[in-house]
Structure formats: C-alpha cells, structure tokens
Design a protein that fits this description.
3 domains, globular, alpha/beta, 13 strands, Rossmann fold
Length: 441
C-alpha cells in the first residue's frame, strides 16, 4: 500500500494514532479534538510539567477545561510524554510549537528546527508530518524539508509533508477547532490527500490549497489583515480624541452598516502569539526578496507604540486631574492577560505597561482573575512571580488602568476605590453614577 492508502486504512479501521508536538494554546486543544473524535493521541512537550498535569487530569489552559482533559485521559485516547521516541507509534505527527520573533524582528525558527530534528529519526515510514506553527511563506520547504533529508528521510516518499496553519482563538466559546474550517497545503498530491484524510476527522470543513507556500501565506494574510485594521483604529483614536470624538462610538455606529465595513476596536496594544508577531515574518520575508511591506511595517510601529501611549495618557491625566506626577504614584493595572477571559499573557501589553510604569518610578500592582501569578517571559523576566492582588484588599491607589476587560470583574467597585481610571477598552462608557474620573485612552 502507498503511504496515503495506509493512513486511509488506519482511519477506516479506527486505528489511527496521532502525535501532537507542543501542548500549549494550539497543541492541547488539537490533541483533545482528535481524542474526542476517537483517535489515539500521543501528546509530547519538552516541559515536564505539562504531561504531568495532563496525566493527572489537570488543565493549565482556560481554553481547555480539566473536564475534557480528564475524559480524554480516562478514555485511554490521550496520553502525554516528554519522550520524542514515542512518535514512532504515530501515523501523523502534528507540530504546534512557538515561532517567536528574534532580534531585529526576524523569524526565530529554533523551536521548529529543534522539534523536526528530534522527531525525524523516529518517524514511521509513510507517516504524515504536518506543521501548524505560523511561519513565513517558504519556511516549510526551506527549513523542514532539509532537516528531514539530513536525517535520512525523503520528503514525499518516506515522509508525507503538509502545512496546516492553526486558527485558534483562545477564550472564544463560539469558535473551537471543530467549528473552524481548516486550510491545508501539501508538498505533493499524496501529502495533501493524507492531510485531508487526517484533519477531516476533526475539522468541520477543509480548504485545500495548491502549495505549502499558499497555505503559509493564508495564515500570514489573516493576521496582517487584523494587525493593519487595528493599527488604523488606534491611529484614528488619537486623531478623533483631539476633535472630542469618541472612537468607540464611531466604530459602533459605523458597524450598523450591513455591508462594506467590519468593526475593529482600539486598545492598549496587541498581544498573543499571532498578531504582534506574524506580520513581521512577512515583512522580513519581503526584505529577503528585495521588496517592501510598508503597510505591515507601519501597522507594527503604530500598534507597538500603544502601551507607551497609554502610560503617557495616564501621566497627563494624573497631572491634569490630581496635580500629581507618575513618579511615586501607586497604579493598578487591571488585567495582564492579552485578551479578555483567558490566562494567556504572551506578548501582553499589560506586561509592558507594568514595566513602563515601574521605569517611570511608579508603584505598579495588578489584578487579573485569570492570571493569579505572572509566569516567566522572555521580555519581562523581572515580573515573573508577581501575584494578582484582590480588589477587596488593595492598598491605597492613585489611579487604575483598564488593560484587559475581563467579564465578571466589579468595575463599579473599582471606580469606588480608584479616584482616576484610564480606560483603554471602553468599559465605563455606558456606566452612570461613577465616582472616579474616567479618561478614555
């Protein structure tokens, strides 16, 4: 049988085994989706705490409940390990590891490279290797294939290769893996056919495209689209503020048009693994090809400037309304997760705002019901271990900054504690009878 026929036969017999490498915000929901579809799943992660937690029926992600983890483990469909050799038992190996930015906003492919090197010697003959991590167009062909060849594997013969970009939206209860169409690109026709067969088990629909590079470009384009539009409303926010116009009201009114407009909202800066990072993969690739991605670069500059703009707005509000300098002030940052109702702090503007406040000489504290303690990050190691303070037991504060608009927070109670609030999310726009001075930023 051909490799594709082998995979199809395994699916038909209910004996397909999938390995998911990287059990983070993308990999764990993916592993759970396959386990819930009746597929045996081997989860692999180099962080020993993650397999240990999963095998104990615990979850470390708000987007993957402990109940789902316990059910998948109890069914025998999901196991977790730190041993890459276990992928020898898998018919499909799906890689979902981070692709951060390096110095000078260049792609950092070290995790992808290390993972491929680690799994290549153990790949079963005819297995499908699928990359889900967001990369620049050309990366799978230029980075992954040579590593497979260096390990003595012939892509397209010994190993089928596909690119299947993740489309996760952590914290969004409406759209999970089973609700989002899957884009697939293959090295060749057999690779694409294998990817279609495997992902067809969990995706509601499939969108095969003509090449690996096209699939890579789809993911980049989705995130560039969002980054550029968010940058646009952030820039308009500053312009309209000087005219006395509320940007949130403008966006909401414009959204009443049933065609030709899509609402994007201003905020304190971008967070998460996708939008602050992925567009720069494209701009780097463009420079490599002696061309320019001017919209992408400009959007990145505007969005990256927002945390500092928030701190500057806070300093101006303190001076104007309280006759007080930022230095020596006690400031509460409300939320350090990058978006509402999740515990994900990757690239969060809340972390940068905390750091900027301390650099300015303020005493910076935070409250986040989803982030009890700040974990280790590459950019802000000094913040690791900081604990969220209860709103009912805060020390006296001079001002608060709304960075993340989590549901379930007593914002009216916060306004009774903080004499001044800088609101970057429009939380207080519809509230009346607020004691604090509220400044939109």
């Amino acid at each position: 049988m051909t490799p594709v026929e082998q995979i199809l036969a395994k699916i038909e017999a209910g004996r397909l085994t999938v390995a998911v490498i990287g059990l983070g915000y993308v990999g764990l929901p993916l592993a759970l989706a396959f386990a819930e579809a009746g597929v045996d799943v081997i989860g692999v992660d180099i962080d020993p705490a993650k397999p240990r937690a999963l095998l104990a029926g615990e979850s470390y992600l708000s987007s993957a409940s402990a109940e789902r983890v316990r059910a998948a483990v109890a069914s025998g469909r999901l196991t977790a390990t730190g041993d890459y050799a276990r992928v020898a038992h898998a018919d499909a190996v799906l890689i979902a590891v981070p692709t951060p930015l390096g110095r000078g906003r260049t792609p950092d492919m070290q995790f992808v490279e290390a993972t491929v090197r680690a799994v290549a010697p153990h790949l079963r003959a005819g297995a499908l290797l699928s990359l889900e991590s967001t990369v620049y167009p050309g990366a799978t062909r230029e980075v992954v294939l040579p590593l497979l060849e260096a390990a003595g594997r012939k892509p397209g013969q010994d190993v089928l290769v596909s690119f299947a970009p993740e489309r996760e939206d952590p914290g969004n209860p409406r759209y999970g893996i089973k609700d989002i169409p899957k884009v697939l690109g293959g090295l060749d026709a057999p690779s694409l056919a294998a990817a279609v067969a495997v992902y067809g088990l969990v995706a509601p629909s499939l969108t095969p495209v003509s090449s690996l590079e096209t699939a890579e470009a789809v993911k980049i384009t989705e995130n560039v689209f969002r980054a550029v539009n968010i940058a646009l409303v952030n820039e308009l926010k500053g312009i309209y503020a000087k005219m006395g116009v509320d940007m949130f009201e403008v966006v909401e009114a414009a959204a009443s048009k049933p065609f030709g407009y899509m609402p994007f909202y201003p905020g304190p800066g971008l967070g998460g693994h996708c939008i602050p990072i992925d567009p720069f993969y494209l701009s780097w690739r463009a420079r490599e090809l002696d061309t320019a991605a001017r919209f992408v670069e400009l959007a990145g500059e505007i969005n990256a400037a927002q945390p500092l703009a928030v701190v500057q707005a806070l300093a101006a509000a303190l001076s104007r309304h309280r006759g007080q300098a930022l230095k020596g002030a006690s400031i509460l940052t409300m939320g350090v997760a990058y978006k509402k109702n999740v515990n994900d702090i990757r690239e969060s503007p809340g972390l940068e705002i905390l750091a900027l406040l301390e650099d300015a000489g303020a005493t910076a504290i935070f409250h986040d019901p989803h982030v009890p303690t700040i974990g280790q990050t590459r950019r802000y190691p000094k913040l690791a271990g900081r604990a969220s303070l209860s709103l009912t037991a805060l020390p006296k504060i001079d001002a608060a900054v709304i960075v993340t608009d989590h549901d379930g927070v007593d914002y009216r109670g916060l306004a009774a504690i903080a004499p001044l609030i800088v609101d970057t999310r429009g939380v207080y726009r519809a509230m009346t009878g607020i004691d604090a001075i509220v400044v939109t930023a």
